[in-house]
Write a structure and sequence with these properties.
about 230 residues, alpha/beta, Rossmann fold, 6-stranded mixed beta sheet, 3-stranded antiparallel beta sheet, globular, disordered C terminus
Length: about 230
């Protein structure tokens, strides 16, 4: 497999404050990878940098193909319809047919004429993911999929994300504070703390790491999980 994203020794600063301090990571084509860590660790900064919104102070990143971001908080155009929000995701492409996204998210069919600001949080997150998919990216970068949503809604969205990866071979980089969700959904993960990669490896391995369990999984034991 080849890397769709390769980050090498990336440093990003806000003035005198260092947000990312020598971060290196990679995502293979068609792979699902999680990036977990506490609030303020630099996760969103990393996504904004690889999406071209921030300029690194040093280090490099390379994307082999197109990347589209599902931003934290969804950031829809609240006074526009669902369909118009979706079409905006394909603004660089000739084909702006929303049918393929509606096929992936059937609940949006009945909502396509609704004003986006009137939707529930889960419905808005479907639109945000669908809007990113309209760009037909090689890498989908999702920032806090579960933010502010009920567990059942999150589970449904996670299944849609897995389906996109499975059926379209689209790589996914999932940035999540909900470590349990991220590690269950993605086979491989990185742990970002204070701007540095603290741990990385297979998600099953990380789930059994005492440090990860204590910091991100509530210190639960295997017996309690069962």
């Amino acid at each position: 497999m080849s890397c769709v994203l390769e980050v090498q020794q990336l440093v990003v600063r806000y003035g005198q404050a260092t947000a990312l301090d020598g971060v290196s990571l990679g995502v293979e084509r068609g792979e699902m990878v999680a990036l977990i860590g506490p609030n303020g660790a630099g996760k969103t900064t990393l996504l904004n940098t690889i999406c071209g919104l921030l300029e690194p102070a040093s280090g490099t990143y390379r994307i082999d193909g197109r990347v589209a971001q599902v931003p934290e908080g969804r950031q829809l155009f609240a006074d526009m319809s669902v369909e118009d929000n979706l079409r905006l995701g394909a603004w660089t492409r000739r084909d702006r047919d929303v049918a393929r996204v509606l096929d992936l998210f059937p609940p949006l069919v009945a909502l396509r004429r609704r004003i986006a600001g009137t939707l529930s949080g889960g419905e808005q997150q479907m639109v945000a993911v669908g809007r990113a998919l309209m760009a037909e990216p090689d890498l989908l970068a999702v920032d806090e999929l579960s933010l502010g949503l009920a567990p059942m809604v999150v589970d449904d969205l996670a299944e849609h994300l897995a389906r996109v990866n499975r059926e379209r071979g689209m790589a996914v980089l999932l940035v999540e504070q909900n470590a349990r969700l991220a590690l269950e959904l993605c086979p491989r993960a990185y742990v970002l703390e204070t701007g540095r990669i603290a741990l990385s490896g297979g998600s099953t391995e990380l789930q059994h790491s005492p440090a990860v369990r204590a910091a991100y999984l509530g210190g639960a034991t295997d017996e309690a999980d069962g």
